[in-house]
């Protein structure tokens, strides 16, 4: 990169892709460091579940575990506050997607869904990851209205509405086992619904669930319908062997069938991904394998997937990016 690039007004210092906790936190830090960041916050899509600017928290009603909100805050309110804080320090916001990235040479070239191309010295990728849903209309409706359907037990399981109630978890992998074990601390009973006769989870995770007297695995069944109007009342189960149907009354449903990182548009960009499609990062750093490209939040985190950990990664990415730009004379 030429040192004269810092004076080229046609080249951005940093472009932040994504508008969840990681993206807004990165924007706050970058803006306060006088990097004049621009955030491409995305546009709403349905594929098949809603994907909204602001990320997974836009589908969350009560958030009780984000520090600084002793009485809790709704997901959309939290994201709006973070957005306003980023704007306060001068962050520019564009409601478009980044559809293609050319990281082959400096400055980088990014193509937007609005048909424009911009150049930038550095990029922070913070697109997040979306929960995989079953795709049923009532499932998604109740998930977006606070009706007792969730994709994160650690986020929502301790809410008063779920305490001492029968709850269900859909899935058979390690995530489902973790969710069920966590929910068992609060629920009267936890049903793990799995479409097969054997779990996919590791042996240790299976043993933890199968030894817990409050957890019951419902084998060879799938959820064919989510029941309830304002709040979930139960699920209709269909036996995957016989086809028989029955209703399982529950007061909460937790979908644990994985997440999909929003990295499809990076195909051919050269950014290294792990086996799950998440962005691979350097050890103890937000740096990707491409010099000048950083990543933060759930798009690079297959383990924690929490708003607060995403925000922390956004902070790291902005600081790493600022230091990278300074070392190259870009101010």
Q: Low-confidence stretches at least 5 residues in length (pLDDT < 50)?
A: 1-7
Q: Could you say what the CATH architecture of the largest domain is? A: 3-Layer(bba) Sandwich
CATH superfamily of the largest domain: FAD/NAD(P)-binding domain
Helix content: 10-25%
Order of secondary-structure elements: EHEEEEEHEEEEEHEHEHEHEEEEEEEH
Which band does the percent of strand residues land in? 25-35%
CATH class group of the largest domain: Alpha Beta
- Please indicate the count of domains: 2
Task: Supply database-style keywords.
2 domains, FAD/NAD(P)-binding domain, seven-stranded mixed beta sheet, five-stranded parallel beta sheet, alpha/beta, 331 residues, disordered N terminus, 27% strand, 7 helices
3D structure, described in words:
The protein is of the alpha/beta class. It folds into two domains: 3-130 and 259-327, 3-Layer(bba) Sandwich (FAD/NAD(P)-binding domain); 133-255, FAD/NAD(P)-binding domain. It has helices at residues 21-32, 75-88, 137-144, 153-156, 174-183, 203-210, 307-327, and strands spanning 11-17, 38-40, 45-46, 50-51, 62-63, 73-74, 92-94, 98-102, 108-112, 117-125, 129-131, 149-150, 166-170, 189-193, 215-218, 221-228, 232-239, 245-248, 253-255, 259-261, 293-295. Strands 1, 2, 7, 8, 9, 10 and 21 form a seven-stranded mixed β-sheet that branches. A hairpin with a 5-residue loop joins strand 17 (232-239) and strand 18. The longest helix is centred in the C-terminal third of the chain and has 21 residues, at 307-327. It is elongated. The two termini are 13 Å apart. The relative contact order is 0.18. Residues 1-7 have low confidence and may be disordered.
